[in-house]
Write a structure and sequence with these properties.
By secondary structure, the chain is α/β, with parallel strands linked by helices. It is 29% helix and 15% strand.
Length: 542
């Protein structure tokens, strides 16, 4: 089948995971970060200054991206894993499915994070590289490592459980790191399609800079002493922000700063491989007829406001980089100052391919290439979770208003307080603040009723829930997949991988972490084995 548009371009979508908007140099030219590949995309195309994730966590954001629809329809209001996970309804068209139907060759390489994992609807080729692998048969990257003689390495993406956000370095050679593999396979695919008649859609998905921050040794010291100190809130944190403090398990400021340095290193390492993919396009003569989009699924608090991870309505969590390049169609060096989000990706891809959306539902997004745009981009709606843990927010030109169903409301003045350190509703707000709050509340109700989960707005009011109670969580996913293969050698003991990962990271001291609680409660080690691990760590300076 031929594409419906005679000049349909190739489409290259590149995604990072957990990349903050301000850790791309083009967004913060006065800053310290080095991202030459992404900067080149911005210089040759368009930078979206106020791009957001509509739901700042991996699985929901990615389902918004590929279906163009919110959790109201695809059902992922948060991450869900395992046999009891939700699944995306079969009748929601994805951009890969639509382009495949109109003649595109379609491929997904790297982290996709769909549920079920192999159900990447619409991709002719799917080479998976997920961050937590439960079955080696479902992960091409894990199979590749086995072929390279690394079947005994369990923590192939870094030690995730007891060292989730701790400084550490990769257990693999740089050339076998997942970021290298995603670029290698993407380049191979681009070269294989260069002389074909059909256009291609390629989604290249990097895991970095998502923790664990398993940076190769040669990249681990790019930013020693360069990362600015973190910010702290001047008003009390929300319950979800307090809950996220526990995830990091970072005991002191030196430890936090080193984690922030390695996050920056992971960004530059990922950027290096983005550059390799873009170079392959040029070498194969595909630059002029390829729409390139780069975006992250969400950000990372990184200790700012004294909290970590995503899930939160603050810009460090939900604001993302978004870059587009299409020679002859997008003005080089242009910048959009209106609001854009991941919901705009599907209509943009379809617009470039010259094919209409075949679904019956109204899309909240609109093509970023639209000649006569209709979407109201004066505000941005963001949502997350369900019941007492749910929040939604509306971001305007100046103010951000957050309604949390099981917690208090928040209001931030983004002009005077871009770091969101001062909640204007804390204490006794004056009449002008209350007027602004009421205006944003009314408008947020409209968006929540139209695009949010069903039944959270009734009779012109937000649904009421009991107060949310903080539930502290520490990452406890243990490597398990390599030993599932019959006859395969047992992987390296976890204690050995922990010690190797932190051997060159002197800010990590295991005795200051909650490793006994994690390792013994999950049955991974006995108390005596933990004692032995701690003693060996002390001897090597950790």
């Amino acid at each position: 089948m031929k594409p419906r548009h005679p000049d349909a371009p190739n489409i290259l979508l590149i995604t990072a995971d957990q990349l903050r908007w301000d850790y791309v140099h083009a967004y913060t030219p006065e800053g310290f970060i080095k991202t030459p590949a992404l900067d080149s995309l911005a210089a040759d195309g368009c930078l979206c200054e106020r791009a957001y994730s509509p739901n700042p966590v991996c699985i929901p954001a990615r389902h918004n991206l590929i279906t163009g629809l919110p959790a109201r329809y695809h059902r992922f209001d948060d991450n869900y894993f395992g046999p009891g996970s939700k699944v995306c309804p079969w009748n929601l068209p994805t951009f890969a499915q639509i382009l495949s139907d109109c003649g595109y060759a379609t491929a997904a390489i790297g982290k996709m994070h769909f549920q079920p994992e192999r159900r990447a609807t619409g991709f002719d080729l799917f080479e998976n590289c997920d961050e937590v692998v439960y079955d080696i048969a479902e992960d091409e990257y894990a199979q590749f490592l086995r072929e390279q003689g690394y079947e005994q390495t369990g923590s192939i993406h870094g030690v995730r459980n007891v060292l989730y956000m701790q400084p550490q370095q990769s257990l693999l050679p740089e050339e076998l790191h997942s970021s290298s593999w995603v670029a290698d396979r993407s380049i191979r695919y681009i070269k294989s399609r260069a002389t074909r008649q059909r256009p291609f859609l390629l989604w290249a998905g990097f895991i970095h800079p998502h923790p664990p921050l398993d940076v190769p040794e040669n990249w681990a010291h790019l930013y020693d002493g360069c990362v600015p100190p973190r910010t702290f809130s001047q008003t009390p944190l929300s319950k979800l922000a307090l809950e996220n403090q526990c995830i990091a398990d970072l005991p002191d400021e030196e430890n936090v700063n080193r984690m922030r340095e390695l996050y920056a290193c992971a960004v530059s390492f990922m950027d290096h491989h983005v550059g390799r993919i873009l170079k392959a396009l040029d070498e194969e003569g595909l630059r002029e007829n390829t729409l390139v989009l780069f975006v992250s699924d969400h950000g990372e608090m990184l200790g700012d406001l004294d909290t970590y991870q995503k899930f939160l309505p603050y810009d460090a969590s939900c604001r993302v980089p978004m870059l587009l390049r299409w020679p002859g169609h997008i003005t080089p060096g242009s910048r959009r100052t209106d609001f854009t989000d991941l919901n705009d990706i599907l209509p943009t891809v379809l617009d470039a391919a010259g094919t209409p959306y075949p679904g019956e539902l109204e899309l909240p997004g609109e093509s970023l290439l639209a000649k006569t745009p209709k979407k109201d981009r004066s505000v941005q709606y963001v949502e997350h979770q369900r019941e007492r843990k749910r929040w939604c927010c509306l971001i305007g030109e100046r103010y951000k208003f957050v309604h949390a169903y099981g917690d208090r409301e928040q209001l931030f003045d983004l002009h005077e307080d871009p770091e969101e350190r001062n909640d204007l509703l804390w204490g006794t707000p004056g009449p002008e603040i209350l007027r602004i709050r009421d205006e944003l509340d009314a408008r947020l109700l409209e968006y929540e009723g139209r695009w949010g989960l069903p039944n959270y707005v009734a009779d012109g009011k937000f649904a009421e829930f009991p107060p949310y109670e903080i539930q502290n969580y520490r990452e406890c996913c243990f490597p398990s997949f390599m030993v599932q293969e019959p006859g395969a050698p047992a992987h390296t003991p976890l204690a050995e991988e922990i010690l190797r990962a932190i051997a060159n990271e002197p800010t990590v001291h295991l005795e200051n972490l909650h490793i006994r609680e994690l390792l013994t409660s999950c049955g991974e080690m006995t108390d005596q084995e933990v004692d032995d691990l701690l003693e060996r760590a002390r001897q090597q300076g950790n």
